[in-house]
Amino acid sequence: MYERTFSRTNPGCIVFLLDRSDSMKQPWQSSGGTLAEGATRAVNKILLDLCVKSAKEVGGQARHYFDVGVFGYGACPVAGGEGVEPALGGQPIVPIPQVFDSPLRVETDPSVDAVAGSRLPVWVEPVFGYRTPMCQAIATAGEHVFGWAASHPDSFPPIVINITDGMVTDSPYDGADLSEWAARLTSIETRDGQALLFNIFLSPTVAPEVLFPATAAGLPEPGPELFAISSALPASMIANARGARMEIADGGRGFVFNAGLATLMWFLEIGTRVADVRDR
Amino acid sequence: MILARSVCFWLEKLGSVATEWEDAAAYHDGDPAAGVAPRYVVVDGATEAYDAIRWVEHLAGSFVADTGPDLTPTGLRTWFEQVQRLWAAEAPARFATVIEEHKFHAEGSFATFLGCRLTGLDGPHARWEAAALGDTVLFHVRAGRLLLHFPPIGVDGFGLSPDGIGTRPAALGPMLRGLELASGEVRAGDVLFIATDALAHWLLLEAARDEASLWAALAGLDHDAAFAAIVADQRAAGRMHNDDVTLLRVRLVTAEPGALVVSL
User: Fold this and answer.
1) Would strands A255-257 and A196-201 be described as parallel, antiparallel, or unpaired?
2) Domains in chain A: how many in total?
3) CA-nearest residue of chain B to A60?
4) Alpha-carbon gap, residue B30 to B37, rounded angstroms
5) Which one of A152, B77, B143, B153 has the minimum C-beta count within 10 Å?
6) Pick from B47, B54, B98: CB nearest A277
7) A210 at B interface, C-beta within 8 A
8) Which of B245, B141, B140 is nearest to B202 (CA)?
9) What is the per-residue pLDDT across B34-49, written as a single tens digit (0 to 9) for each?
10) Per CATH, is B3-253 categorized as 3.40.47.10?
């Protein structure tokens, strides 16, 4: 299980659930920006990484190694009001070559270690407002993930990464609470295993980072609940992380608390890499 | 006098076409009259690398050239710097997309490396010398038995090494720290195999099961279709990872071997 690699024959599916609730306007550690800006920066960076991985031929198109989705929940900038809204051109699941070809814009890389003059594409903008309909987000994304898994039975199972700063406000939703919606999502499967749900718990507070924990001990609310619905990292991801000289306990879950950008990118890198890079 | 006679077999990963094979190999069986030692190299371009095919071709050709490196830390450092400079000098003037530009600058290209040379084939101290970065592996076989493999990676160690030859100057330090060197004595009748990771992993598993049959079959391999059939069978059986595979075989003989058929 969890042994398939991403390939054109069997592409992967990576879906982000992006909290766009009002509390995402809070400052993100010492970054000088908001949680919403940090979260979208991380999503844009990992989308770039997936595009980069898929860019093979010089001057050519990206290869179809991935299908990706970004679902914002909370404020809906297109439809208006509160709800769940696909954030990649309004489409739920998008082939990576299409993502490659259609950034919203290109901006100068703001990171301090960037090569002078280097530019980065932007696909998702920071938005915040309203409450936190996380259950609805999982339910909505789950419908698309279910359809994707049914049409890709030999692929690595879908990976769903939820980025949030706080309490779910719509549990129970449609008769099921957050843990039930998470269980429904992770019951979706391909022949290579069940869908994975990972959670990134952002916080404006000053607290130590917690990365891939094997226990919820010491996590502030709603950390324990988010930890409980987070999937255990498959052995292939743990092996990749350890191969990159990262310490991960056996039984570590796909959960991170209070991450800065560097840790967030580490988390996303580990959580979206499924096997040896040369196995494509 | 020992003669080295080499041949290379390869197959792209299932789902790719031949032009997408991202390994490369080069071999030069030497010229005893001119005092040129045999040199062999196999490199495996990382799938995520920028323009991996150009990088592995560049590395393989450069290694077996007359100006190829000494297999010492100093010699290899000089060679690494040289191939990186040439790569940078051949950078595209313009990039098709901002993503391609980012990939070139931020990540560059990358390949695992196993380079080997033979010395003293005309005397009593014939030897192989090898240098490695990553999980492309040399197997030294004598009388149907594996004497050693280098680097000494276990069956669970493939795909985990971050080592290889990168294009970015910042990679030079880690490359030198990860560099492994080894040598061994060779005799007429020995066979050296150099294999990229998926095949090397399978070789170790098969050698543990029935090495006499394995090495006899590979030493007698005489057609690339036969090699392709073995790989296809093992992939279909789930015993070999679906990856580009390359096998460079060097037979050490005292007389010219019979004809070999290779379709290109």
Assistant:
1) parallel
2) 1
3) B96
4) 5
5) B143
6) B47
7) no
8) B245
9) 889 999 999 999 877 8
10) no
